[in-house]
What does this fold into?
Amino acid sequence: MLSDEPARLDRLLHELSTLTTEAAGPGRADLDTLSTIDLVREMNAEDAKVPAAVGARATAIAAAVDGIVERMRRGGRLIYVGAGTAGRIGILDASECPPTFGTDPGLVVGLIAGGPAAIQRAVENSEDDGEAAAAGLAGLGLTASDVVVGISASGRTPYVVGALQHARAVGAFTVAIAQNAGSAIGALADVPIEVVVGPEIVAGSTRLKSGTAQKLVVNMLSTLSMVRLGKTYHGIMVDLQATNEKLKARSVRTVMGAAGVGADEAARALEAVDGSVKRAILVLLTGIAVEEAPAAIERAGGILRVAIEQNGGARA
It folds into this structure.
């Protein structure tokens, strides 16, 4: 086995030399000699390139959102898979969905190479274990109704490759988010989203522009899927979980704004429907009985706008 090491190292060095994410950007030779204010301006200028690069992949992102929505409507889940920064970004997005959109914690899930311990510190060699990713997805009971989103700046991380290979074998819908064109994970995915942001200000530090691009894309995937699934109304969160005083106040303000009522009436409506913003707005705008609201929303597929229309529209 030791005799194979030089050849393996040569192959790896060749692969890395072709990756945009590993390149040193032009004009970086004097980076460590710049003043602090010039460093700030230089890094900000690099970061400003990211939104345009994401926008250039709008069609692919929309296709991914449509695929996620279709699978979720038949009971599927959204599962992010990544190593290091990419894995942490997936877990962050997944963890924000329940409080923001009132989803079950099992609906959007994040897997990271090395397991939960890797969320806070690096777990050596875990990103090279593709079999661990397949085992993790198998442990979740992955089915053809699910969506697996592999995230890897290089586009070649073995853990993510293994996850997408397993997902394809099961028949799940697959998405790849990479920062290099023609990536290995892109070739495995139903929808490749290759957002090429160029060399990092510190060569190879893909927690920077690459990580920002990944965060912007996963924000779109989860948020826009939830919009399509009826988790918003007029651009406001109507399935949020009011788990603290700030969110309770936001619930009252949301009902006030959507239903055109005062704070007291909004608070009473929320109390009557066990804190459900969506049901409170429906009751106030249509006048239907509190006990009828859950079934009305279910008949509308969870979409408040449809439920309002089906129950006589806004109250005069």
About this structure: The longest strand covers residues 147-152. The CA atoms of residues 130 and 162 lie 4 Å apart. The first helix runs from residue 5 to 17. Residues 50-228 form a domain with the Rossmann fold fold (CATH 3.40.50.10490).
